Task: structure prediction
Amino acid sequence: MRIILIGPPGAGKGTQCQRLVDLLHVPHLSTGEMLRAAVRAGTPEGLQAAAYMTQGQLVPDPIIVGMVSRRLEMEDCRNGCLLDGFPRTLPQAATLDELLERRAMSVDGVIELAVPRDELVRRMLARKREDDDPEVFAKRITSFELQTAPLLDYYARQGKLASIDGLGTAEEIFSRVQAAVGRFERAARRR
Ligand code: AP5
Ligand code: MG
Result:
């Protein structure tokens, strides 16, 4: 299974992916985590990315696409993966389709975690990651609304979107996620 999780900052993409890893036994590819690791390691990519991340802006595509395509090449991604935070724009979605097509693969399903803004802010205030400053967080939400939300329509038109209520306990949300994965599995068997 190749599954994408889409949702605004703080929606619970990372939290649900951790649980999905145990269910599906496929790796969790979080572009945010990859970037934070590159920043910590002080690589040239990390140094370049940090300037955008601390401003709540998207990191330029050449960095992101290079990182994801190298990761998708790895052996452990052969049977599937969970994509968290990528794609984030329509051009990134088109690039992902090309990367997968070249490997005779495709996206099996997309899960949208829908969470209202006041709850996102509550979660952000309780966490305190470096980019969880209220002003930066507001910019990340705006970036989601303008650049990422159009992807929902892109995948809905392909019949691949499952929109899930992201309010409740992580456990409750995971039952909804599991139900969506079940639907993706049945659709994949029909193809
Ligand atoms: P990224 O790391 O992807 O951050 P994000 O999208 O802003 O999302 P978060 O990681 O903040 O939230 P999440 O949905 O994973 O929620 P989580 O499970 O942590 O990206 C960071 C930056 O990197 C971007 O701003 C951009 O600069 C750059 N970047 C990344 N990908 C890129 C790309 N493709 N292109 C360009 N730039 C890119 O949960 C949040 C909190 O809530 C946690 O504390 C958690 O414990 C808590 N929580 C989770 N579930 C619940 C629940 N049900 N109830 C209560 N609390 C909960
Ligand atoms: Mg995350």
